[in-house]
């Protein structure tokens, strides 16, 4: 039986602080994905999350804190999608098969161009990009592949990591993915997947080590007009 002292205050709803923080972050991602950093304000995010501004400020004192939290979310999301809980490399550039890892990155970038842009410029402009968990893991796995028997000689793994990540996240901005139809974005995704695979197969790995990927590349070649 609930007595008078056990009942919650009238008109108030108790919130789980962690759940509230996640709701605010989700709202921030929605705003950033649609309008970029220029459209972000704590007031707008609080309204979208269904909390008052005071609650939002308790979790994030400034909009820069919200942006940094979004960068951290992107890193964690990609880290889990590509590497999972496996802490050991496996001689491939990612802990998933090469083409699957390429697909995950391209799909995320094309569907979230503003989030990708924010992540890229935040990490690349930092004093120490290696502090970012996803960049550090991506660079290490690329280094593992470059040093394996499956790769060509003379690869600069750090430079290759930067080139690849810049390509993934700048491509959607170049093709204006945000303003495209679903069918157009799918076509852009296929183009980038294939080009990333082609670069891997003809410049990074030894094609004879991955015959199934070479076949996939051959099968996806654009038809030449006659």
UniProtKB/TrEMBL annotation:
Residues 18-78 form the HTH tetR-type domain. Coiled coil: none annotated. GO terms for molecular function: DNA-binding transcription factor activity; transcription cis-regulatory region binding. Residues 41-60 bind DNA. InterPro entries: Homeodomain-like_sf, HTH-type_TetR-like_transc_reg, HTH_TetR. Keywords: DNA-binding, Transcription, Transcription regulation. This is TetR/AcrR family transcriptional regulator. It comes from Mangrovimicrobium sediminis.
């Amino acid at each position: 039986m609930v007595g008078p002292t056990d009942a919650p205050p009238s008109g108030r709803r108790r919130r789980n602080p962690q759940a509230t923080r996640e709701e605010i972050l989700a709202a921030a991602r929605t705003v950033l994905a649609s309008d970029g950093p220029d459209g972000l304000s704590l007031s707008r995010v609080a309204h979208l999350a269904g909390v008052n501004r005071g609650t939002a400020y308790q979790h994030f004192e400034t909009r820069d804190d919200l942006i940094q939290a979004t960068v951290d979310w992107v890193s964690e999301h990609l880290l889990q999608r590509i590497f999972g809980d496996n802490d050991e490399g496996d001689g491939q550039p990612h802990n998933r098969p090469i083409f699957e890892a390429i697909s995950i990155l391209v799909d995320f970038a094309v569907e979230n161009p503003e989030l990708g842009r924010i992540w890229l410029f935040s990490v690349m402009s930092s004093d120490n990009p290696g502090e970012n968990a996803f960049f550090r893991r991506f660079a290490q796995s690329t280094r593992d592949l470059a040093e394996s028997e499956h790769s060509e000689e003379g690869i600069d793994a750090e430079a290759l990591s930067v080139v690849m990540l810049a390509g993934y996240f700048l491509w959607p901005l170049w093709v204006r993915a945000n303003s495209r139809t679903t069918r157009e974005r799918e076509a852009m995704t296929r183009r980038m997947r294939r080009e990333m695979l082609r670069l891997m197969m003809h410049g990074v790995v030894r094609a004879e080590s991955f015959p199934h990927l070479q076949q996939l590349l051959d099968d996806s070649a654009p038809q030449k007009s006659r």
